[in-house]
Backbone:
């Protein structure tokens, strides 16, 4: 008898009809001989409605009471889903985060799970009951209600699966799995059957917004088999698991595109120790996150220092640097919003040389100029002009044969 | 330093503007040097919205999950009120019923409070914080969320006041106190400054729907000073307290009118033991509640047995009795929906004879025929034709001089 955790997001429980559809799916899973724990989000729109009430009182509201307010959203869903399960003849019992005792720290609005007491849930499962748990929320050691921040329901599901040593944690969403790239750009994009945690982390952080990053980290840490599936269609989705569970590993698993960044260069800085911290110190102090960083030393004893930030932080960052640059003896600050980052991701590249040069050549053959390069163990990213966004993704998807499931070696 | 419990119902917290008005009032009470505990209901309409969601899934929903659902209504209000208090510079902390630990039995949807752990609330009050508690809800010994049934927020407030030995429990409503009678019938009706628990219980159960009966019973049992006030106007309202706290007690405190009953007579029943149970047994078995009961023995060895039921139960009850009557040898069943019950209430009548005859004479002088009479220690009720409703109330209000506050002896 397997233990399965199933998580349904806000769209999947958006109204009572959809909640009944979720109940049917859960009932099928239980009748197939599984112990089922369900984790649900607030009904879509509900969190925003509650936030609207709070903001009518205080537009910059944060803190303890916001969590008391927002946690009601999932509490409504757990009750309604249990009612729907009962109607389908499935005995079910609901739990708030506090009732399970999902213990978190006291960082209201963005708490982190510290421990889960799985005993009550396990007793219900052993007694043949489906347990329905409110995602996104917990309780601190003083009994205060906390929330995990947006998207935290995924983390609740994975943490419960870890605590219960569940066989699988299934995340139902509005997509039917993880794709080799965005199908809106490459119609031949293919749903991946399996992918490693590391690859998923690189894909998620690079713009494939299927799962909350923290939940994948959690799944990786506790080796929870995580499956992404569609709430609305049948299918086996994509299993995110350990490398050992993937027999034939492709070189490259996917191509991602990130349109959210902008590039900034501090040009002609005298090349001496402390340049990086001199430039990035004031940027970090303004709470701007920096992604790619490249430094080139020129022939004349000066250096160009280039990095990327989120487009929303671009103006602010340029303003900061225009003050700092003269003090450092730099020639000037220039930047460009109209860039994108394209990346290829795959654990297979660890054991294969030549992937980078093959990527660069494919882009160059079509006249795409590479402006920055950054590499990690399982990822290579390049920054190119925004106008090459789709072309760049298509070239790389094709170059590594991602449209062909049989083509594991991306020949 | 006094401890005050203030309870605000759904209309008083109906939107965020009204919640801010409540916050101002609470802030004033605290700044006047009081320790303040606030009990709130769900925002008006919210409980019905939640019930609507539940009924879309199961029209006859009851049980555990309904309480999980409905309890979110007050949880939203406590959070919003704490936000509004914080904005007014008043430190405040919210508690759900489970967080206070308002321990109830496990009768979901209509639980009864068994104990209140007041320690956390008291610690907050001692630290200068206003505490805002969700009304209507509690938790059973197994950690399940329970609700007290409609109107239960009044009971929460009184129970908290008892546990904290508060100086006063103030119930804010949409009326500014308890009146000698319905001002829509008698424009001279006067707001009572003080009234005893017993009188209030008789007034409430007789149709003056200001307070939930259970909360008055609770206040009486624990000698909690209960004050009814308007949320929207200034004023001192009506204090409901022990007889000892009312120096000059009027003979009669009020006149009430109940339009919800119907009269049924089983005529010509052979007069022998077991008549009453023979008639009322089948009625009780059908869950029909009986109010007034009168039995008269006739000269011919038969008796007429008359009683009142709620108008909604009239048809059902007549149908039952038409089967039972022939078996008992009764001559027939007749009834009348078009009757009303008028009552006078006052602890003063305990020590004064002649109140009843004065009441009957006043009605007779104006040609009003009395069809039934029922008396208790502090109440006399008569049933009359519906057409005399307003006239009967006006005659009695005037007869006992209730329009004149100085006229304590109802001369």
Residues:
């Amino acid at each position: 008898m397997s233990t399965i955790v199933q998580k349904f997001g806000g769209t999947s429980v958006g109204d009572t009809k959809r909640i009944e559809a979720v109940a049917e799916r859960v009932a099928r899973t239980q009748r197939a001989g599984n112990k089922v724990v369900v984790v649900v989000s607030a009904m879509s729109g509900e969190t925003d409605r509650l936030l609207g009430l709070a903001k009518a009182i205080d537009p910059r509201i944060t803190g303890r009471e916001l969590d008391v307010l927002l946690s009601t959203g999932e509490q409504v869903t757990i009750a309604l889903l249990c009612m729907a399960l009962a109607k389908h003849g499935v005995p079910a019992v609901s739990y708030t985060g506090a009732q399970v005792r999902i213990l978190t720290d006291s960082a209201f609005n963005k708490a982190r799970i510290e421990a889960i007491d799985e005993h009550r849930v396990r007793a219900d499962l052993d007694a043949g009951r489906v347990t329905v748990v409110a995602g996104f929320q917990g309780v601190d050691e003083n009994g205060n209600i906390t929330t995990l921040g947006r998207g935290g329901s995924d983390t609740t599901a994975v943490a419960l699966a870890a605590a219960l040593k569940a066989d699988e944690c299934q995340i139902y969403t509005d997509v039917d799995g993880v794709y080799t790239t965005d199908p809106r750009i490459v119609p031949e994009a293919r749903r991946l059957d399996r992918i490693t945690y590391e690859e998923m982390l690189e894909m998620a952080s690079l713009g494939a917004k299927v799962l909350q990053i923290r939940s994948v980290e959690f799944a990786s840490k506790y080796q929870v088999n995580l499956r992404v599936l569609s709430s609305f269609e049948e299918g086996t989705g994509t299993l995110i698991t350990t490398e050992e569970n993937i027999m034939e590993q492709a070189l490259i698993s996917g191509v991602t595109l990130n349109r959210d960044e902008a590039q900034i260069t501090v040009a002609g800085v005298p090349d001496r120790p402390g340049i990086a911290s001199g430039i990035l110190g004031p940027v970090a102090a303004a709470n701007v996150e920096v992604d790619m960083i490249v430094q080139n030393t020129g022939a004349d004893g000066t250096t160009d220092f280039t990095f990327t930030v989120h487009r929303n932080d671009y103006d602010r960052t340029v303003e900061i640097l225009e003050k700092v640059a003269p003090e450092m003896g730099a020639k000037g600050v220039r930047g460009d919003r109209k860039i994108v980052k394209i990346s290829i991701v795959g654990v297979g590249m660890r054991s294969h040389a030549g992937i980078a040069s093959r990527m660069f050549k494919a882009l160059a053959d079509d006249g795409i100029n590479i402006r920055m390069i950054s590499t990690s163990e399982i990822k290579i990213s390049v920054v190119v002009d925004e106008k090459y966004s789709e072309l760049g993704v298509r070239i790389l998807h094709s170059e590594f044969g991602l449209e062909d499931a049989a083509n594991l070696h991306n020949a």
